[in-house]
Amino acid sequence: xxxxxxxxxxxxxxxxxxxxxxxxxxxxxxxxxxxxxxxxxxxxxxxxxxxxxxxxxxxxxxxxxxxxxxxxxxxxxxxxxxxxxxxxxxxxxxxxxxxxxxxxxxxxxxxxxxxxxxxxxxxxxxxxxxxxxxxxxxxxxxxxxx
Length: 146
Prior knowledge:
Elements: E1 9-12, H1 16-26, E2 29-37, H2 39-45, E3 51-58, E4 65-73, E5 94-97, H3 101-109, E6 114-115, E7 120-122, E8 126-132, E9 138-144
């Protein structure tokens, strides 16, 4: 037996509306929002008293989704350091293929993104960069050039 697909990646954020706006600027489409609470939520995530709001964002090709989650209860557990470097254990980053990396960076900077390094060229195939987005998540961008 094999998996059918990867359904989504979830990111816990402190400002759901800002995160939705950021990823919409990147080109993801808001599929829907919901409030999640109840015994099923507690049992699923292994926490008591879960009450959260989620927004499901879908890539334009319809194949990938990003679930943005804002927890109301229990209180969010903060990480140390707040904005961990790219070599921290755990979820590293989320990468998106884009048509125009320079335009995308400019639009995301207007939404608070910070470029971690520079736009780099990998051989004559890609232009790549890392940005820090909502809740400190690292978003990678790749523009195919060759």
